């Protein structure tokens, strides 16, 4: 709904409800007060004046209802309504369905305010008697039921114009969430309102007339006027009741007519909270289910028809394929026999390969053991060579010390030779001294004999000393020569040890390199051994697979023979399927024609 339609509907509801109040209820109420209170003409004018003031003053409540209803209807504007969630949309629809019932509160408040106000305004001009005051207390019993029922039906009729709009018509609701005002309750309250108004008005007037509580003026005319107004109220009330029932019934009847023609495109709007409104929910659910079933049947019948045609086309090709398969099966059987022989030959080769692989694996394991032994020997040699290097270094140190000591000995020998030469010279001088002493002793004669003897002994001692000195000098010379020769030999030995140390270092490096190479060889041999193990496993698997393939090929040959027989049977079976597909396609077409009766 757009804004213009919303305002139009709000004004129609407000004016319609107020017309029911101002045209029907107010004149009946004023007439009842005047007649039942036995008012004079002047007081009757005051009653009409007070009722008019109260009526216009109480319009504040219809204004509030107008604004509330307008705000509710604005939530159904398409742009606003489409942005709301499903729960919010359902809540709006429930509020619209509940509005006729909640609207009763407005008229109750309006009249509960208006009747005391009318009495208050009227009694400002005179002091009422009990007879004049009493009708105001009876008035709610007379008017409330009729107003309540008429307001309810008119509100429901006008709200139904919103509920049948496109936005709300197909919106699903759970039956349990909708308040129910059943047909029995509607009839009961309608009849109660009619009887209450009649019995209250006429019964009160008859009671007053019989008991002489008050003297009615022109009783016959008064009763006729009351009867006319009551009749008008009853007519309007029943008309609204019938119109509300008729509107809902027409909606249901039209929908049943459309269903009878197979039209499933529309659903039934939920415009009331009675059994018809709740029945609309079930009917809509049924229509929705039929619509889904029909859609599925149409879709499946089309698929069935298409599939039947496809199967018919395929079976024709399948028949040709079966014939070709029969001839191919014979060729395949011969090929399988050749393949079986080839597989047996492959199996024999795989077994032989497996044996060779095992021998190669054993050789690799032996090579690994040898390389491990070499690696261990190289490690031991490296340890011994390092020890030799340390001992060579110790020998070099000892030879160097020996060479230093021999140099010192050679120096000492040279020094000793010099000393011996000095001793020789002294020996020579002693000889000369002893000769001179002998000469002088000879000159002295007997006085010099003792001195001559001393000189002789000294001379002998000098000769012996000289002789020993010569021998010592020869020995020292020989020792000096030997020392020089030994020092030269030790120097050569030291050079030899130095050369040996270098050789040992080179040997150690070579041994290290050899040890690293043996380690790498061990890793390579280990990888080769692992590869041979995998190769052995693979060879065993190949042998097993080829044996299985040989067995399978034999079974395959048997199966091909069976397939050849089955192909002939299938060829006949496919011909039967082809005939069945043609019949199935015709039945699918007939089903589609039957389902086309429904419009979705």
UniProtKB/TrEMBL annotation:
Name the UniProt key words of this record, in alphabetical order: Membrane, Transducer, Transmembrane, Transmembrane helix
Checking SMART domains in the record gives: MA (SM00283)
Q: Does the keyword Membrane apply?
A: yes
Transmembrane: present as a keyword of the record?
yes
* UniProt cross-references to Pfam families, sorted A to Z: MCPsignal (PF00015)
GO BP terms, alphabetized: signal transduction
Methyl-accepting transducer domain: from which residue to which, for each copy? Answer: 300-564
Q: Which InterPro entries match?
A: MCPsignal_dom (IPR004089)
Write down any Gene Ontology CC term.
membrane
Residue ranges annotated as transmembrane are 15-39, 45-64, 104-127, 133-154, 183-207, 219-242
This one is known as Methyl-accepting chemotaxis protein
Question: Which organism encodes this protein?
Answer: Leptospira bouyouniensis
